[in-house]
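If your schedule permits, I should be very grateful for your opinion on a structural question. I have a record of one protein: its chain in single-letter code and its fold written as discrete structure tokens. Would you kindly read the sequence against the tokens and tell me how you understand this chain to fold? Thank you for your consideration; the sequence and its tokens are set out here.


***
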Amino acid sequence: MRYFRRREVVQTGFFAGASAIVAVMPVSGIATPAWEPWRDLVNFLPNQAQLEAQRRSRGRPPLEWEVQRIENASKPTLNLDRYDVAITRLPTSGPAAGSAQQLYTHVRRNISSFLDPSIAVLRAHLATDQDEWSLAQPPTGCMMVFGIKRWGAEAERGAVVVSQSSGLRWRFSPVRIGRLVLGTHPVAGNREFALEPAGSGAHIFSVRAADRAYDATPTETMVLDGAKDCWRAFQTRLVAFIRTHGGLAEARPPLVLAPAWQDAVQHRLFTRT
């Protein structure tokens, strides 16, 4: 019988901020219930031909790019993660006051300001991508680039395409642009951002992903731990922003599952052909 690990981040006490394995669960003959919330992201593959057609319809010039397929990644672990911020009162002042839509739009448009700049920054690929990103709803096919920091310097860049965008939700899918510049993104898969109602006026801002380290280098541990640090920092900064502007929010403990990719395939979590 094969096993996978569930890891969470300790939120309080002496070990606050540390990553801890909190359970070890056996894998059954089918995808375990713990994996099911990520099934859509594991199997989602953007239609590149449609995205290219949409870009052409907006007058965008040709671009050499390719969606990085999760099944083509080189590393053995499937990362399934979720980072939630529970919001019991929306901001009452500042640029995000007024509604859930206002908060969502502000966070999306200014998402780089919610990242720790010593870990990562996000910018548009081209000026026209920035124009599209600044719209009320960014169009699919818009390209953004993560600048990934290590030891205080930008060590890697990873491009993503807006592969879904509707309502209070969007998805980023990693892409390769060119051969060397920008080249490949460190992971393949999908990451989704959403603001969802949670009853009684409360909301959840969630960031969740299904992805795998893509290239031979850097190491799988470096890639996945870097993502963990990035989205924990996002939680912290979003909570601080909401509280500063009259709202109430708290970061929930991140949930990170790490099954082997072959187990996900064998137990039919990955079913796309």
